[in-house]
Write a structure and sequence with these properties.
By secondary structure, the chain is mostly helical. The protein is built from 6 helices and 2 strands, in the order αααββααα. Strands 1-2 form a two-stranded antiparallel sheet. The longest helix has 14 residues.
């Protein structure tokens, strides 16, 4: 994809997300996603010397945020969703149940009672 088209995707997604460059689901910024995977914002590894990985660099072409959907979504959330869906045959139903509980049973889930 050309650089121009990448920027178009990026700015269109930011507009849909209220001009916030954050994951729609977890609210992580791109820098926080890179840190989650062990990289600085420039793509160099955190604590490289400690782990002996000085030559490892996050390829700048690797997408850590998707700007192509209705809202930006980070690769951490994509991996989490994949693991839920692949964990068992009940993954999709379990995810629907959790979302339903979050929407309809908020008081039960976040009760102050012990």
């Amino acid at each position: 994809m050309t650089l121009d088209r990448q920027f178009q995707h990026y700015f269109a997604a930011l507009e849909r997300a209220g001009n916030e460059d954050r994951c729609f689901l977890c609210r992580r910024t791109p820098a926080e996603v890179k840190a989650f995977f062990g990289f600085h914002e420039d793509g160099t590894p955190i604590d490289a010397e400690k782990y002996g990985i000085e030559d490892v660099v996050l390829d700048p072409r690797v997408d850590i945020m998707s700007y192509r959907g209705s809202r930006p979504v980070c690769s951490v959330c994509q991996l989490n969703l994949d693991s839920i869906l692949l964990s068992s045959d009940e993954g999709p139903a379990l995810l629907r149940k959790v979302l339903w509980e979050l929407e309809h049973e908020r008081e039960k889930l976040w009760s102050n009672e012990a």
